[in-house]
Design a protein that fits this description.
alpha+beta; Peroxisomal Thiolase, Chain A, domain 1; ten-stranded mixed beta sheet; 15 helices
Length: 432
């Protein structure tokens, strides 16, 4: 079943900010998820014409917060100085958690329940836990229940090497428990189904890095707030950019998810990353009361679902219904952001988007909307070069798309993500 939303009164995006997206490099990063959200939120709130205590609520997407971050939205809200009286809640829709936060904020404003909402997402994937397996947990329960040295001695005798096999939560979480496939394996299925070659994937990945390099050189990522770590190191930009990448280097990488014959590599997949992103949303009344400037408005949102093994096609399902409901064609959209979970996944979406048979059979849409122009898609890079902190990416896409519309003097944009578990989310945006 698909859940549809349209907004009864205008919902405006006022401002936004994010941290640099920091690539995970094999050990816990210098920032936890709540730290990242605070670092992105403080400068955003500090430059507003209203006090943070006037927010009606704070909504934050996060897939896996730490043990000291239960209801991470509330933890962050208090650390941001919003006061005791601003309620906060956390949402989780896998890769689209940040988009869900923005949609939830928009619905609250559209319904008249709220006037000012801070919404976004955060994720410290480097801090996702490493857990004990069930055998070790059972052994520890026996150890705690043992009476005296003799009982504990018998427990020690039962301890085996397999008790120490750890569970990496990040890897387990990126595997669908229903169909038994990792997200990378679902991308391999799409590559096979739509005859997408390794060279096509690597070329798409290279373009992502080239676009990000060009965006940085042109200072097009002004939504990034520089952050300092506790050891005094300054981070100003996304640090996963491989400016020296080439097709030759990408071709030399081995497949990760389907060895030895697969096509999906670390180079043509989204980077595992830490980061946070926020947006401030307001009602027309709040805009007038506080004399707020506008980035644009949220027009409509769509959530859709499909076979989990084909989850990468989720953007097509969500965008298709959104376009049909709003009577739009591809030419009506000035810029597109489709999250680059995998190059194969985005390329599959582009093929299906213009496939009359697929749209008719899967979405009951009679005619394709027209191809998405490559020069209007992810023009400043995507998750392959920028990174994909799963709780934050949806908010980043919306924020950056609004910045693109503002920068180019364009009117309309579409932001979309595939979602692990077989879902898709899309948001239609208009510039102020």
């Amino acid at each position: 079943m698909n859940s549809r939303t349209s907004y009864a009164r205008p919902v405006y995006i006022i401002d936004g900010s994010r941290t640099p997206f920091l690539k995970v490099r094999g050990r816990p990063g210098l920032f936890r998820a709540s730290d990242l959200a605070v670092l992105a939120g403080r400068p955003l709130l500090a430059r507003q014409a209203f006090r943070a205590r006037l927010l009606d609520e704070v909504i934050l997407g996060c897939v896996s917060s730490g043990p000291d971050e239960a209801n991470i939205a509330r933890v962050v809200t208090l650390r941001l100085g919003c006061g005791d009286k601003v309620p906060a809640w956390t949402v989780q829709r896998n890769c689209a958690s940040g988009l869900q936060a923005v949609d939830s904020a928009a619905q609250a404003i559209a319904s008249g329940r709220a006037e000012l909402v801070l919404a976004g997402g955060t994720e410290a994937m480097s801090h996702h836990p490493v857990m004990l397996n069930d055998k070790m947990l059972d052994w520890l329960a026996g150890w705690n229940q043992a009476q005296g040295l003799a009982d504990r001695g018998r427990q020690l005798i039962n301890l085996r090497a397999n008790h120490f096999k750890l569970i990496v939560a990040l890897l387990r979480g990126l595997t669908d428990p229903v169909v038994g496939l990792s997200m990378g394996q679902t991308a391999e299925k799409l590559a096979w189904r739509f005859n997408i070659s390794r060279q096509e994937m690597d070329s798409f990945a290279l373009l992502s890095h080239q676009h990000l390099a060009q965006a940085l050189a042109a200072d097009h990522l002004q939504e990034i707030e520089p952050v300092y770590s506790a050891n005094g190191r300054l981070y100003t930009d996304d640090d996963g950019l491989r400016a020296d990448s080439s097709l030759e280097k990408l071709a030399g990488l081995r497949p990760v998810f389907d060895r030895p014959h697969g096509l999906v590599t670390a180079g043509n997949s989204a980077q595992v990353t830490d980061g946070a992103a926020w947006l401030l949303l307001a009602s027309p009344e709040a805009v007038e009361k506080h004399h707020l400037s506008l980035l644009g408005r949220v027009v409509d949102t769509q959530w859709s679902a499909l076979d989990p093994s084909q989850m990468g096609l989720g953007p097509v399902h969500a965008m298709g219904e959104l376009m049909q409901r709003n009577r739009l064609l591809s030419d009506d959209i000035d810029y597109w952001e489709i999250n680059e979970a995998f190059a194969a996944q985005v390329l599959a979406c582009l093929k299906v988007w213009d496939d009359e048979t697929y749209l008719r059979n899967e979405l009951s849409i009679d005619k394709p909307f027209g191809a998405i122009p490559p020069d209007r898609l992810n023009v400043d890079g995507g998750a392959i070069s920028i990174g994909h902190p799963v709780g934050a990416s949806g908010a980043r896409l919306v924020l950056h798309l609004m910045k693109i519309l503002q920068r180019t003097g364009s009117r309309r944009g579409m932001a979309s993500l595939c979602i692990g578990g077989g879902q898709g989310g899309a948001m239609l945006l208009e510039a102020a």
